[in-house]
Every structure is written in C-alpha cells, then in structure tokens.
Amino acid sequence: MNRLSLLTKQNIAIGLIWLFHVSGIMGIIYSDATWFVKATPLNLLLSFALLLINTHLNRKTLLMLLLCFVVGMTAEIIGVKFGFLFGNYAYGDALGYKVLDVPLMIGVNWCILVFITGFIAQFFSNNLWLRVLIGVSLMLFLDLVMEPIAPKLDFWTFEGG
After folding, report:
1. Helix (H, G, I), strand (E, B) or coil at 151
2. Which residue, 68, 87, 95, 126, is the most exposed by fewest CB within 10 angstroms?
C-alpha cells in the first residue's frame, strides 16, 4: 500500500477528528481547560463540516440533516422549557449562542450523532430496525459518558445534579 492511497478525504477527516478530540481531552485535563471548553462550538462546527465533506449530499441527505437539526432542537427546547422528555435541565454558556435557551450547536450535534451512529450501525446489520437499535444504543452510551462531565464543562446541568 502506498502513501497516496492513505491520503483519502475520509482518512484525513478521521485524522483531524482524532487530533481535535485528543488535543481537547488532553488540554482540558492538563492545560487551560477554559480555553479548550470555549473551543467546543468550533470543534462541533469542524466535525459537522467534515461530515458534510464526506457525505454524498443530495436532496434526501440534506432533508435528513434538516430533519435531525429541527427534531433535535425541538426536543431540546421542549426539554428545557417544560422538563418533558429528558427531565429538568438547563444549558450553560459553553456551547455558544442559544435560541429559546438551547444552544444552536446542540442541533448541529444531533445531526453529527445521528449520522455517525447510523454509519456505524450499518457495519453491524442490514436490518433497518436492528440498525436503529444499535444507533440508539450508541447514543445512549455516549450520553451516559457525557452526563457526569457536562456540568463541570458548563454544557448542561440537570436539576438536582
């Protein structure tokens, strides 16, 4: 295998994602955590841009992206305003500009997570319902990892901790 065959658009994107995430984790743990946390919206935008660059964009895909964003934001707004769906919680300031108390980056994050978990689930099954179950399980696992960390990074906080 020659070096040029490794320099694909997808491999470069994966390398950048690893670089940014590992650097962010190391920076938060060992350096100026505030600076790295403030860069989270930039990291999410970069991840989203790399997702778009590596996705075959057509009308169906764009509609799916829009649907993920709108459904994600709507669910979060309902959650924040009424405590319905996820419980009583509020977003901090780390994720940037908010609409109805929900950071726009959360809608972007929903797009990223739905697409990535969907791509991963494809490797395990051809059955649509099994892929949905795998994708949901992956998102729930990520949520379990994020929940204890989120308040410390000023991402979000649930009422009562």
Report:
1. coil
2. 126
pLDDT in tens, 144-155: 998 898 998 899
> Residues with Cβ < 8 Å from 153, sequence gap 6 or more?
28, 33, 37, 40, 92, 94
**pLDDT-derived band at 15, boundaries 50, 70, 90:** confident
Neighbours of 122 (CB within 10 A): 12
Q: How far apart are CA 14 and CA 125, in angstroms?
A: 23
pTM for the full predicted model: 0.84
Q: What does the DSSP 8-state code read for residue 97?
A: -
Q: How many domains does the chain have?
A: 1
Helices marked H in 31-147: 33-38, 40-53, 59-82, 104-122, 128-146
